[in-house]
Design a protein that fits this description.
Structural class: alpha/beta
Strand order of the largest sheet: 2-1-12-11-10-3-9-8-4-7-5-6
Oligomer: single chain
Order of helices and strands: HEEEHEHEEHHHHHEHEHHEHEHHEEHHHH
Strand content: 5-15%
Shape: elongated
Number of helices: 18
Radius of gyration: 37 Å
């Protein structure tokens, strides 16, 4: 029999932050909730990234909702990827429920319904503030990794970008990029070979095919202007509460390439924009990536390396990234090792592979004298989870099977009318939801080609005129020469004597 007093001391020592924190719930022992064993996550360590995992229906989304709304209340902006379309309810207060009351009575924690300030963003044609980025902002290296290009193809793309920089040709969308690649091995072949070296049509053709494949996942909706500014993700409202930015992605589950492209560009833009923060008392921004396996589903090794590098570095900017997925094995082990907060809901053991996954998952958590981790992982109820975090000194906290608190906001989606009103009240709609198609590489190259064609036509016409003139001159000279020969013959003494002789004979 485990000693409850020792257990309470064990948990209280491991979860006793001196600074601000988020209350997650209370630890359980032998299936019983111990309200004194409060689980508090230090705000200071929230930029150390995290994982929320568990089988379908175990409460992952509600856990995400709890963390997001509490971060907002502490003045920390949040960015959430809403793949299933079920996070919008965070904009409305919870209507309450007797099950919520019963849960919070067990926790001995007051439940206060509360809405959070929300901004709805969109990556596609769904209603919301449109997110876009230009091709130039990606750069040749990042774009090459997204397209999974070879070293040779990457070099060609770098030359294309260099040519555009040298000739003031803005690369804004995929139409611009395709046009300049066509130009490099067609109308502009001689110009490119002279200044940048020869490029084979087979290599540029391969690049173009990969761009077209990206377009098939509606990437052309994402590339363009106006570019979204990172600062607009970092806002707070008039009450000092952090904005919760929800990106609606429920229509791109079958477009993993677009999703990973967007995520990588966003992470890279955030990293390049924000200044170094070092260790601070609170994060600058927390990102939640729901259905995180979509990022890694079709990612190349080069793309995974890029994501891993950014995740390692971005926490120094005060940014925390939280992956939400069904199984921890969905996340590459190199990235999994970087995660400080892990919240593991129940897993199902229906198959041999499931049991193997449970064993691997259990090995990712600290050993505990109070839990048989593999056994508890399959017996956790809805809204219960294992939690392991870092304390303010970066040390792992004790493993705690936790009865989670309930979200203060609505655990359901907004109605179509509520969603329309929320989007209509946005201050960012007028800034980003407009079509801009300024003159860029596509238009400028078309002009250049047209001018070259006109110049070629003028040169050809000139050559034709000169040819006609030369032919006419030769004909004229030949005619004059013939006339001169005839006159010479007609005026010669021999010709005259001959004519006179004929005439004398005729008149005799």
């Amino acid at each position: 029999m485990k000693d409850p007093k020792k257990f309470i001391e064990h948990i209280q020592q491991g979860y006793a932050p001196k600074g601000d924190f988020i209350y997650m719930g209370a630890a359980m022992l032998d299936g019983k909730t111990i309200p004194e064993a409060q689980i508090k996550i230090p705000l200071k360590t929230m930029n150390r990234h995290g994982l929320i995992a568990g089988a379908t229906g175990t409460g992952k989304t509600k856990t995400l909702q709890i963390i997001a709304e509490n971060l907002s209340e502490k003045g920390v902006p949040v960015l959430m990827m809403d793949i299933k379309g079920d996070l919008s309810g965070i904009a409305m207060p919870s209507p309450g429920h007797k099950k919520i009351d019963a849960r919070h009575q067990l926790l001995n924690f007051e439940f206060t319904p509360q809405a959070s300030p929300v901004e709805i963003l969109s990556l596609s044609e769904q209603p919301g503030v449109r997110l876009k980025a230009t091709v130039s902002e990606f750069g040749p290296i990042l774009l090459s990794r997204i397209l999974d290009l070879t070293d040779t193809q990457t070099g060609i793309l770098a030359i294309v970008f260099k040519y555009c920089d040298d000739n003031q040709l803005p690369l804004l969308d995929l139409k611009d990029l395709k046009k300049i690649i066509h130009y490099a091995t067609d109308d502009g072949k001689e110009e490119f070979e002279k200044d940048y070296g020869r490029m084979s049509k087979s290599s540029t053709g391969s690049i173009l095919r990969k761009i077209v494949a990206l377009e098939q996942q509606d990437a052309d909706l994402f590339f363009g202007e106006p570019s979204f500014e990172v600062e607009d993700l970092m806002r707070t409202n008039l009450d000092g509460r952090g904005m919760i930015n929800i990106i609606r992605l429920d229509d791109i589950q079958d477009k993993p390439k677009l999703f990973s492209t967007f995520m990588l560009s966003l992470l890279a833009e955030i990293y390049s924009t924000l200044p170094e923060k070092g260790d601070s008392d609170r994060p600058e921004l927390i990102m939640f990536i729901d259905e995180a396996h979509l990022i890694f589903k079709e990612a190349s090794d080069a793309l995974l390396d890029q994501i891993e590098s950014i995740i390692k570095l971005i926490r120094s900017k005060g940014v925390g990234i939280y992956f939400v997925t069904q199984n921890p094995t969905d996340v590459p082990k190199e990235i999994l090792s970087q995660l400080g907060l892990k919240i593991q809901h129940s897993l199902r053991a229906f198959t041999a592979n499931d049991r193997k996954a449970i064993k691997l998952t259990a090995e990712n958590y600290p050993i505990s004298e109070y839990y048989d981790t593999k056994e508890v992982l399959t017996s956790l109820g809805i809204g219960e989870a294992f939690i392991s975090s870092l304390d303010e000194k970066g040390r792992p906290s004790p493993l705690a099977a936790t009865m989670m608190r309930a979200p203060m906001s609505r655990m359901d989606v907004l109605t179509s009318g509520e969603l329309k009103d929320l989007i209509g009240s946005s201050k960012l709609i007028s800034k980003y939801n407009k079509e801009i198609d300024r003159e860029s590489a596509y238009e400028l190259l078309n002009k250049k080609i047209a001018q070259a064609d006109q110049e070629e036509a003028r040169e050809k016409a000139k050559e034709d005129r000169e040819k006609v003139s030369r032919t006419s001159s030769r004909t004229s000279k030949k005619s004059k020469k013939t006339q001169s020969a005839v006159i010479k013959v007609l005026t010669s003494a021999t010709f005259i004597r001959g004519v006179m002789s004929i005439l004398n004979k005729a008149f005799k």
